[in-house]
């Protein structure tokens, strides 16, 4: 569903992405992890067309996305920090997104909207909202238009435990609907019961792409966190060695 | 595209800064025009305020807005929208809102006290200046990532257009006064939209002085239909060119 | 019989001498016995009146060489056919009234006029219409003559192809009253003319000056209107001029002046209105001029006073809405007295409520000094740069004349 081939990106002299080749498919829930500054967000942004790659290609649903924009209709994106125009109300944000997406109100996925009880907040201005509430708005928007692909950047950061659970349940339901879900998160415990695959990046390079089962088997642990820690340690020793 | 413009405008029109700007213009224009019995003289006093305030507020407000909306712009870019459309909408929304604030703030007092050709000209030119400085703000903001640097540059640019440029013109005039520099000087002023606006309006109001020694030059250039058309075209270029350049940058920008 | 003849002789001689009393009237016209004005003049006795019917008379130059009164009924046309001088007056005590005089010849050697008065006295040119003549009414070395209620118009396009509307040369004690002049080179031109009164004339749209005089002493100009002339009004090399209650309007252009004073001394300029001129008053080499109660409004420069001017007085004038109030080319302009004028740019205060500001007003701004030297600087007029310069200068005067100031400026406009 998403395929990158030798994807590279430089910011000035810094190589943020180095020849990343990746193939992600329908029905997968992919955890994109790695230390800070490893290129996760840049990879996501490249897929979303927000960052223009220096070289390599990205193919989404069999189409090269360079200079294209219509493919994003099939992607729901929840950014790391969701900031909206201060003087717009939540209701207007939803209206605007519906306007942009051109979806009819009846066809929308309102699960999160209802679970997060957005209705009561419709008249609140974005400028007055807490970070958590803004995250909720972002989540609602990402899922609202029933996209085939969901990209959630640090989705659970800033959410309270109840909302985190609501979101996780929603993610699982969507995965069951045969969608591709890409999540980045630092909180590995959150990912544990969600993800089917792990993509691990380090210093702009793709270290590995494995299913969670094989990863656990390799590292002989049953917790994702421990498995990753194991990997990180071993990679560090390789670097030092 | 219209949708985004609509939301951008409604967002900006509710910002406290823009309301304060409008109220400030209203207060200034009312007091200047209300106290002055001679409408033309009032327009001249108002002209100075407009030339000072409008570029400053337009460029700073637009710059700050663009930096504050960085994440919102990212969000828009992640949506199924063409980048040029997003950028165009932001430009039209921003310049539309600021121009509207200007037209209300200065327009109402002008309609009440000074509904004369020079007053109308002032409104048109002020609206043009608003758009021009929004356009310039777009160009600088798209190139500089750092907010503080970007705002600093915006202030510097304003200072340049409002004051430094004229100092430069004066300096060149002193240096080359022995040469036939008239046409060159008129051409030079075309590089500053504030100067163009000022001269156009003064030709309407202060004709007697402008027709002095330099009368021949002014009349040959600004006094003719061709000169006026050219001036109007240059003002339009000042609106469109920075915006076009900024669009080229934005198309390739990594957000 | 013989005595009767003698009587006849005496009466005839008497009539000749006192023609004005027992004048005969000769009628000229298509329907009359005498069809030509020239013939009528040759038949007429001094003091006779010649009455001319409506019609067209192209008789070359009509020379009036005896004291006659010529009266036109319903403006008969005297046509010079672009070749001749329609009327040449070469006798004293002539009156020409009620004619339409047109199309005099043009010449660069002699000054051909619609009506020209040669070396004589007591001539009256009244109620005529003069159209498309080289010069309009021309007094050459004449005395005690009057030009009144004439409407003079020309269509000349350049200074060379056009003469002056009313032209007087080496004359004395003329009265020029209530004429209108349009489209000539100068509207009214006086050279070496003395003791003359120019009153209630309107001089408009002339190519060069509305009024122009040189070497013409002891004249008075009252209640005239000079509007929209190429270069305004110029007065030069003259003593003891009185200019009162005139209006100088909209004299706009590269080198246009409301009133240009060059080498004028001991003169008065009072109660005049200078509205919308490029330069309202320009003074050069002018001394002891008293300028009082004038309205100077909406001009580019209200007063340009050159270094060569001394002992002039400006009191009780209104300076309103001028781009620049006063400029000068000299830093140490002394001995000119500016006092108790109203300046709308004055920003002082009046604590003792005597109607006069408590701090002096300096009418010369730094920017105007710069413009004087670098005219192109006008491009920066009313920019922040120019404001900044003026403000700085006001705080620390360094480049503007120190002594040029009004010590007691009025707080409110005066009735002038």
From TrEMBL, chain A:
It comes from Sphingobacterium psychroaquaticum. The keyword Transport applies. This is Cu-processing system ATP-binding protein. CDD domains: ABC_DR_subfamily_A. It holds the Pfam family ABC_tran. The keyword Transport applies. GO terms for molecular function: ATP binding; ATP hydrolysis activity. Keywords: ATP-binding, Nucleotide-binding, Transport. Residues 2-228 form the ABC transporter domain. It comes from the Bacteria. The lineage of its organism: Bacteria, Pseudomonadati, Bacteroidota, Sphingobacteriia, Sphingobacteriales.
UniProtKB/TrEMBL annotation, chain B:
Keywords: Membrane, Transmembrane, Transmembrane helix. The chain crosses the membrane at residues 12-33, 45-67, 88-114, 120-141, 153-176, 196-218, 230-250. This is Cu-processing system permease protein. It comes from Sphingobacterium psychroaquaticum. The lineage of its organism: Bacteria, Pseudomonadati, Bacteroidota, Sphingobacteriia, Sphingobacteriales.
UniProtKB/TrEMBL annotation, chain C:
InterPro entries: Carb-bd_sugar_hydrolysis-dom, NosD_copper_fam, NosD_dom, Para_beta_helix_rpt-2, PbH1, Pectin_lyas_fold, Pectin_lyase_fold/virulence, SCF-Subunits/Alg-Epimerases. Keywords: Repeat, Signal, Ubl conjugation pathway. It comes from the Bacteria. The keyword RNA-binding does not apply. Residues 44-191 form the Carbohydrate-binding/sugar hydrolysis domain. Residues 1-23 form the signal peptide. Pathway: Protein modification; protein ubiquitination. SMART domains: CASH (SM00722), PbH1 (SM00710). Coiled coil: none annotated. PANTHER family: F-BOX ONLY PROTEIN, F-BOX ONLY PROTEIN 10. This is Nitrous oxidase accessory protein. It comes from Sphingobacterium psychroaquaticum.
């Amino acid at each position: 569903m998403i395929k990158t081939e030798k994807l590279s990106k430089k910011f000035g002299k810094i190589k943020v992405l180095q020849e990343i080749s990746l193939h992600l498919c329908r029905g997968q829930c992919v955890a994109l992890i790695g230390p800070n500054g490893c290129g996760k967000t840049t990879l996501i942004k490249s897929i979303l067309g927000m960052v223009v790659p220096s070289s390599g290609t990205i193919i989404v649903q069999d189409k090269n996305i360079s200079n294209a924009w219509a493919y994003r209709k099939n992607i729901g994106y929840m950014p790391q920090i969701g900031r909206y125009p201060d003087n717009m109300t939540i209701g207007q944000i939803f209206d605007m997104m519906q306007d942009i997406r051109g979806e009819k109100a009846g066809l929308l996925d309102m699960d999160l909207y209802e679970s997060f009880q957005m209705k009561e907040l419709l008249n609140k201005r974005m400028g007055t909202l807490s970070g958590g509430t803004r995250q909720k708005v972002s989540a609602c928007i990402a899922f609202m238009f029933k996209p085939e692909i969901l990209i959630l950047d640090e989705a659970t950061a800033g959410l309270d435990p109840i909302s985190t659970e609501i979101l996780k349940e929603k993610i699982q339901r969507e995965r069951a609907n045969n969608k591709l879900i890409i999540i980045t998160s630092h909180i590995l415990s959150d990912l544990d019961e969600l993800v089917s695959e792990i993509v691990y990046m380090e210093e702009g390079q793709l270290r590995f792409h494995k299913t969670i089962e094989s990863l656990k088997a390799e590292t002989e642990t049953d917790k994702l966190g421990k498995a990753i820690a194991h990997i990180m340690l071993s990679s560090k020793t390789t670097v030092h060695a | 595209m219209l949708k985004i413009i609509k939301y951008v405008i409604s967002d900006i029109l509710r910002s406290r800064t823009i309301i304060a700007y409008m109220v400030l213009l209203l207060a200034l224009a009312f007091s200047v025009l209300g106290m002055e019995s001679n409408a033309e003289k009032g327009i001249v006093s108002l002209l100075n305020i407009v030339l000072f305030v409008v570029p400053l507020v337009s460029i700073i407000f637009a710059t700050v807005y663009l930096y504050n909306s960085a994440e919102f712009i990212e969000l828009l870019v992640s949506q199924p929208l063409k980048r040029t459309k997003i950028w165009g909408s932001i430009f039209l929304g921003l310049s539309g809102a600021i121009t509207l604030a200007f037209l209300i703030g200065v327009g109402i007092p002008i309609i009440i006290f000074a509904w004369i050709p020079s007053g109308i000209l002032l409104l048109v030119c002020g609206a043009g200046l608003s758009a021009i400085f929004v356009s310039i703000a777009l160009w600088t903001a798209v190139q500089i990532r750092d907010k503080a640097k970007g705002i600093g540059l915006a202030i510097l640019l304003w200072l340049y257009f409002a004051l430094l440029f004229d100092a430069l013109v004066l300096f060149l005039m002193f240096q080359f006064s022995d040469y036939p520099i008239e046409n060159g000087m008129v051409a030079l002023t075309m590089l500053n939209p504030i100067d163009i606006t000022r001269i156009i309006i003064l030709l309407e109001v202060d004709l007697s002085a402008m027709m002095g020694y330099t009368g021949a030059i002014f009349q040959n250039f600004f006094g003719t239909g061709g000169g006026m058309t050219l001036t109007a075209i240059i003002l339009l270029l000042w609106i469109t060119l920075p915006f076009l350049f900024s669009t080229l940058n934005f198309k390739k920008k990594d957000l | 019989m013989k005595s009767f003849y003698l009587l006849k002789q005496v009466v005839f001689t008497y009539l000749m001498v006192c023609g004005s009393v027992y004048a005969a009237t000769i009628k000229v016209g298509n329907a009359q016995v005498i069809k030509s004005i020239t013939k009528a003049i040759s038949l007429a006795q001094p003091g006779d009146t010649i009455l001319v019917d409506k019609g067209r008379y192209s008789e070359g130059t009509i020379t009036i060489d005896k004291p006659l009164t010529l009266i036109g009924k319903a403006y008969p046309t005297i046509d010079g056919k672009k070749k001749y001088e329609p009327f040449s007056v070469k006798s004293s005590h002539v009156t020409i009234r009620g004619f339409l005089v047109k199309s005099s010849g043009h010449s660069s050697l002699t000054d051909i006029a619609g009506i020209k008065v040669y070396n004589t006295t007591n001539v009256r040119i009244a109620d005529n219409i003069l159209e498309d003549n080289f010069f309009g009414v021309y007094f050459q070395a004449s005395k005690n003559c009057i030009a009144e209620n004439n409407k003079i118009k020309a269509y000349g396009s350049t200074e060379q192809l056009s003469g002056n509307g009313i032209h007087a040369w080496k004359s004395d004690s003329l009265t020029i009253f209530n004429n209108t002049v349009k489209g000539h080179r100068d509207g009214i031109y006086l050279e070496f003319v003395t003791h003359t009164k120019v009153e209630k004339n309107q001089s408009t749209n002339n190519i060069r000056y509305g009024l122009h005089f040189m070497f013409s002493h002891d004249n008075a100009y009252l209640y005239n209107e000079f509007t929209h002339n190429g270069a305004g009004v110029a007065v030069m090399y003259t003593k003891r001029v009185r200019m009162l209650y005139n209006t100088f309007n909209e004299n706009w252009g590269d080198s246009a002046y409301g009133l240009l004073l060059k080498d004028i001394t001991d003169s008065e300029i009072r109660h005049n209105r200078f509205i919308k001129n490029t330069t309202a008053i320009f003074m050069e080499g002018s001394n002891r001029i008293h300028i009082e109660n004038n309205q100077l409004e909406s001009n580019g420069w209200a007063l340009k006073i050159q270094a060569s001017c001394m002992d002039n007085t400006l009191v009780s004038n209104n300076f309103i809405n001028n781009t620049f109030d006063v400029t000068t080319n000299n830093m140490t302009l002394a001995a000119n007295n500016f006092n108790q004028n109203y300046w709308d740019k004055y920003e002082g205060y009046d604590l003792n409520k005597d109607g006069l500001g408590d701090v002096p007003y300096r009418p010369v701004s730094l920017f105007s000094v710069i413009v004087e030297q670098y005219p192109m600087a006008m491009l920066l007029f009313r920019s922040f740069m120019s404001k900044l310069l003026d403000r700085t200068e006001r705080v620390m005067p360094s480049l503007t004349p120190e002594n040029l100031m009004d010590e007691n400026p009025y707080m409110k406009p005066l009735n002038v």
